[in-house]
Specification:
Elements: H1 3-16, H2 20-44, H3 50-65, H4 88-111, H5 116-147
């Protein structure tokens, strides 16, 4: 499945999740998807994105690591369904939106947390999502810089 379609599926699932356990599962799914997209960009993406893509992979992995790995049925891991990136710019634009929504969901969970463990998990996951989004925005900037046409002197 292509990246944009998986990202849109994750956005809908996050928006429709109810309760902290379900939301945490969707946050984990989003971070795992960001990690997979970063990894794919690092290997197959434009050369000017590879360093930032590796950073995204690392940061999103950290985002997954601070949240308990959910029990998913076989075939439910969206990141494992990623078969193609499609247009890198489109994928990154949608991924940036997803990571922003993840941050908002985590802020809501942290502010309503009943226990300190959940609160700190949310805070660490907020940092990871924010830093991952920063990497995505930097990759979009690099794509824009690459696509600028420099007029020739003449």
């Amino acid at each position: 499945m292509d990246a944009v379609r998986l990202i849109m599926t994750s956005r809908r699932a996050l928006a429709g999740s109810k309760g902290v356990p379900e939301m945490m599962t969707e946050v984990w799914q989003a971070q795992a998807l960001a990690q997979a997209i970063g990894s794919r960009l690092a290997v197959f993406g434009p050369p000017e994105l590879r360093g930032e893509a590796l950073g995204l992979t690392e940061l999103a992995g950290r985002g997954c690591g601070v949240i308990r790995t959910p029990d998913l049925a076989e075939g439910d891991l969206r990141a494992a369904q990623l078969t193609e990136l499609g247009d890198a710019r489109q994928a990154l634009m949608h991924l940036g939106s997803l990571l922003g929504e993840v941050g908002i969901a985590l802020v809501g969970m942290a502010s309503g947390a009943d226990d300190e463990t959940t609160y700190w998990q949310c805070m660490e996951a907020i940092d990871a999502a924010d830093e991952s989004r920063d990497r995505v925005l930097e990759m979009l900037r690099r794509l824009a810089d690459r696509d600028e046409v420099v007029p020739e002197a003449g």
